[in-house]
Amino acid sequence: MQRHPDIHLANVQTVYAGPEGRLWELLMGEQIHIGGISSSLDLAERAGIQAGWRGVDLCCCSGAGMRFLLRFRNVAHMTGVDATPAVLQLARQRAADEGVTAATTFIEADVCRTGLPDAAFDFVWGEDAWCYVEEKPALIAEAARLLRPGGVMAFTDWMEGTQPMSAAEAKRYLAFMKFPNILTLAEYTALLERAGCKVQLAHDTARFPRYVPLYLDMIEKQLTYDALKIVGFDQALAASLIGEMRFLHSLAETRRIIQGLIVATKPA
Fold first, then answer.
1. What share of the chain is helix, strand, coil (3-state, %, to 5)?
2. pLDDT tens-digit series, residues 126-183
3. How many angstroms separate the CA atoms of 138 and 71, rounded?
4. What are the phi and psi torsion angles at 249 (to 5°)?
5. Quick count: other Cβ atoms within 10 Å of Cβ 206?
6. Which phi and psi (to 5°) does residue 123 adopt?
């Protein structure tokens, strides 16, 4: 596990309550994860998410994943948990705009200690968001606790790849992304097994190297004015952000970072 000792929840809340969060959504859309709806469809299909199920999205952000599952997988209800009030306010508004308020519940809480009842959900969901959680063993244990026997845990996340980052690369990457730490597929698998879950799938989606150039093209070729407006027309800051995204691309191309996909089940 690569760690950054100076990154904590407050740093993440600052990002998603401010201009940096708006910039990510400008580049990636409401589904702020690599691959957008194609990634969501792939994860839901591999996990076998069923119509009528009830799920919980840990680190739900603005609830885009929840609304996707309600619309495209016909789940009965989604509960979203996030620790940033600003994104939960936006999530409730967007749920109302799409007419799914009755099928959604949003809770402001630490995803490692949600306060939700045991075995209350058919599935636990996460998309490229658990990288922001500092206590990953506690997160996985909480996710397993929330699952009913036979339930499914399905998530993608930004992970360290098969080629390890140097200490300097990891420090730069984690500082830019505001990740307190980053796991490998093997480390996530070990946590899941320790929590009593059986890992069904664990692989690199191979999307990362293909999508970072798309985001760079958007910010440099089409959405430059929009991005500059978000950062107060600070051209030096914008250039710095582009430089960090190019650094991300170099890490992705060499498989130092990946989008990992994991599906696990809780024994019946």
1. 50, 20, 30
2. 999 999 999 999 999 999 999 999 999 999 999 999 999 999 999 999 999 999 999 9
3. 31
4. -60, -40
5. 11
6. -155, 155
The token pair that represents 201 in the structure block: 């799938």
Round to whole Å and give the CA distance between 124 and 4.
Answer: 27
Residue 218 token pair: 């958007």
Predicted confidence (pLDDT) per residue in 210-254, tens digit = 999 999 999 999 999 999 999 999 999 999 999 999 999 999 999
| Ramachandran area for residue 4 (φ above 0: left; ψ -120 to 50: alpha; else beta) | beta
pTM of the model: 0.96
- DSSP string for residues in 79-100: EEEES-HHHHHHHHHHHHHTT-
Pair 104, 77: CB distance under 8 Å: yes
| Angle, vertex CA 67, rays to CA 66 and CA 69, nearest 5 | 65
Long-range contacts of the stretch 193-197 (C-beta < 8 A, 24+): 194/137, 194/140, 195/140, 195/141, 195/143, 195/144, 196/144, 196/266, 196/267, 197/140, 197/144, 197/147, 197/153, 197/264, 197/265, 197/266, 197/267
Closest by alpha carbon to 266, among 183, 142, 156? 142
- Domains by residue range for the chain, with CATH: 2-265 (3.40.50.150)
pLDDT at 160: 97
